[in-house]
């Protein structure tokens, strides 16, 4: 063990927090295979590491207590633990060290057991050398950390429930019972009007009228409720805890704005008729909502009524909901008119879910359930519907005087507009339910505005009311934590530098969290703000920002660049580096380590939360610092745990390939691969194959000109125009194919390549003029860059007009130089 407590002062970094490294023997799983004494010695010479120590077990209580002791005695601010799988011990270490100043983001775990000791065969000193490279890169990652303070969330204002759906009242009931001030924005204050219009979204629910009426009355009578009738929702600004909600008002009057702490959107879907294709005429052939209206006005019919559950014929997956509605209506009709006859005709592919009691009731009321062969579509005739019997395959007829069809369910045009204003992605007539991101519970972002109702996904009234109560219950819990001062934003979420943000909106388009919103500003500019309670920390939005205005706090691009640079500088020429996402590459590597499966020891894997977090600059930095190959290993296609990070990484890798090709480096030196946690053997094949590819090519031939070109590539990858054009290809949440929809793919690719060539040449000229003293002639610049004079001249003209470079004439010959600030 060696203490380097004064090392930072010697390197001019006296303001840095000290980094402590703790090596784990892990029984005999690490210590005998890796020379830990040599490893300590190597790490002690690392200028950014202040303290190195070996422990028997760093994750057990004695080891944790020793780490706490060293942290306090040596004033350690950041910790690297070199042991086993981070997904196992990192959460525990974060909990145990949080009270000692080592908060989340200030600790990193390097799996030297799974990436070195268990999978590599070699001399203990060689394995110590490999371990040191991985640990030093981790220390560099922590050294580049600029800690973000914990953000306490406070609720400023009441809860607002908007949208006008039935969940409004169940949510409000839950909130007022907890004595939480609530504003409900509705289209009518008349309880009977609400009951009267129930059938438009939830037909056949007459048995729920009294219950719903009681809920509405309880809400309206509560002193904690403020009921407002408003126009259309115009905009929502702010983050959880403090929103400003604006509604349109009457003509010539200013909009109405309300400050609220949380929002629940109660959005009910709509039901439309099926059109003339099935004989609909609105009189004899109806849909569910029209039948409900008919019964409301004229009472239960006393003739033959047939409910045809024809959802599958219209390719709609809501047959069970339609069957349940038909069943409710059939019961009402039979109970209120003994002269009625009711049949329910359904496709035999539908599984009818009736309880034993309901089956008995069906027999007692004489309600027929008639299945038909779903391979042959029934035909509607005047007074009859012809169907194919599923038992004997004989075509039969069923008489009717009123035929009731299943409705076409739609989220609703106005509901979709509200959803868009709330920051949800909408796609035509698709419902609003989002695919949940497959992340750990502590990474799940909260809905910015809680959504309830059948516009999210078709459901019955009971489920809608339950969703409203559930949304209110979640908000109640959050308000309780906030009131106790215990509600904090997660430590690793995206933040916006509004000084850099131009309000282009790219981040909001590709974010699937729904946590990015505009902020009103002077001159019409709308820089973005991230709601920290919604962000899941996927980070692909930050990696996509053309202006580097977005960053993933406590896990920034600068940190990843520092890690990749530290490792690349230490690699031998025949060694290869890679990044693996925690859910794909890292998980498969951990599994291989647990099983002791050997693979090429010259491969070095670095972890990243999602492969989509990797900025172009991180990939470019690897080659700039000496890497000869870079392998990115993500989740299997369509299984990205952060929605579309894998697709975005795909687009970035393709751009890097183009840039390498431009400067004469093989495109194959960077690659994207996929790994499955349960298939470590496939991970090993991937790694060995890529190392073999790099071996065949050999190291990059680096000379002064090539190094300059790689540096120019790195600068091009940070060019806002290049990054913006690339952003046009990134998969949006509404796109359904991997690696994103390919409309006009070739035309786009040609445009992207043209932009790359233009910006690359500009950057090469600028960097050359910065490096060369004095002024340069066109011929000198062309010769130095190896490019045609006409291309150089055109670019010089543009740069001069933009004021980036200066041009003077001597004897009618132009000379160029960088314009001095």
From TrEMBL:
The keyword ATP-binding does not apply. Keywords: 4Fe-4S, Electron transport, Iron, Iron-sulfur, Metal-binding, Oxidoreductase, Repeat, Transport. It holds the Pfam family Fer4. SUPFAM superfamilies: 4Fe-4S ferredoxins. Coiled coil: none annotated. Residues 492-521, 526-555 form the 4Fe-4S ferredoxin-type domain. GO terms for molecular function: 4 iron, 4 sulfur cluster binding; metal ion binding; oxidoreductase activity. The keyword Electron transport applies. This is Methyl-viologen-reducing hydrogenase delta subunit. It comes from uncultured Desulfobacterium sp.
